[in-house]
Write a structure and sequence with these properties.
alpha/beta; Rossmann fold; 2 domains; 7-stranded parallel β-sheet; 6-stranded parallel β-sheet; 17 helices; globular
């Protein structure tokens, strides 16, 4: 007997994470893919879905951006209507966005079991909206699919043991799958005249870095002082703060820094795989750096992906100029990595467990 599952996503990264699960799920069950429209992404065109072989959403609520409370409330109302109409057996949510929390709440209110992929992650920084979303979603989930043993331990510490499974990380599944696609489809290194191993790849978008002029200034100064070739796909939010603070002109005049618009996923994978080092405040990019065995310097004081730090492949430096510069110049990871994130078959394991609920 097959299940009818509504999968709820809200942004491009969640489509990418959901893609290997959807492929496995649709071999045995019926999936309705609901996009809240939380993040408008001009790259999420027909071409995006065709190039990555990702199922298109069955419905887009087109909620858009807005204050957290208002956005979550609009999602909650829209998702509730869809679930009432679809009457699924289960609802599947990913990660820690407002879409995740709204989907979990709407399902719980309708007494539909909620299953959470990427359960148990904790930064222990409750100033991050994502942290609140994670904690609340885990509390009301029936099945909690954890990417690591650390995530399982976090849930145990909070008294959550029922329905908890260490499946491995679906993002690792996706990283392996899309790396093969990227190798044959992206020519971004040639377009940027970038030599493999000859540049730093930088991303910076979190409010604690972009909204604080002192923090953003320290990051920019360290990048310039490094003297290295830098490729910096600049997030739209970051562009505004760089311009208002006068830092954009400094970067443009630095000579060896290439400021480019955000790139597609396959191009980003190519840039990650061939960087000498990655400097980022993105959780996903930290982990992809680990998967591709690229040293990572993280512009945060904490991370959900503690395994990358414990293994010595990720260094937390915050927004301190001297720590950033020293890390760029001296950080060298060890040769070995542990297989913290599974074997690349997390999606198949999740579908197997879901099948046992029929």
């Amino acid at each position: 007997m097959s299940l009818k599952i509504v999968t709820i996503v809200g942004a491009r990264p969640q489509f990418i994470k959901a893609s290997p699960v959807s492929r496995a799920l649709r071999r045995e069950h019926k999936e309705f893919l609901l996009h809240t429209g939380q993040h408008y992404d001009r790259n999420m065109s027909q071409l995006f879905f065709e190039e990555l072989d990702i199922p298109e959403p069955d419905l887009n609520l087109e909620i858009g951006s807005g204050p957290h409370g208002e956005q979550t409330a609009q999602m909650l109302a829209g998702i509730e209507r869809v679930l009432a109409g679809q009457k699924p057996d289960r609802v599947l949510v990913y990660g820690d966005t407002n879409s995740t929390l709204a989907g979990a709440l709407a399902a719980a209110k309708l007494n539909i079991p909620v299953d959470h992929i990427e359960a148990g992650l904790r930064s222990f920084n409750r100033e991050m909206p994502e942290e609140i979303n994670r904690i609340l979603t885990d509390r009301i989930s029936a099945l909690l699919f954890c990417p690591t043993a650390t995530a399982v331990a976090h849930l145990q510490h909070e008294g959550i043991t029922r329905g908890v499974h260490n499946t491995g990380d679906v993002m690792y599944d996706a990283a392996l799958h899309f790396a093969d696609l990227a190798a044959g489809r992206s020519s971004i290194l040639e377009r940027l005249d970038a030599a493999p191993g000859g540049y730093l790849l930088v991303t910076c978008h979190r409010p604690q870095n972009t909204d604080d002029p002192a923090a953003l200034g320290a990051i920019v100064s360290a990048l310039i002082a490094s003297g290295e070739r830098v490729i910096f796909p600049v997030h739209p939010r970051t562009v505004g703060f760089l311009r208002r603070s006068g830092l954009m002109e400094r970067l443009q005049n630095a000579g060896k820094i290439s400021l480019i618009e955000p790139v597609g996923y396959l191009e980003m994978i190519q840039l990650e795989q061939h960087a000498r080092m990655i400097v980022t405040d993105s959780g996903g990019v930290q982990k992809e750096a680990f998967f591709y065995r690229i040293p990572c310097v993280t512009l945060r004081d904490e991370t959900e992906w503690v395994e990358t730090v414990k293994d010595g492949w990720n260094l937390l430096v915050g927004s301190d100029h001297d720590r950033i510069l020293d890390a760029i110049r001296t950080f060298t990871p060890p040769a070995q990595q542990m297989a913290h994130y599974g074997s690349g078959r997390a999606s198949a394991e999740i579908v197997r467990i879901l099948g046992g609920t029929v």
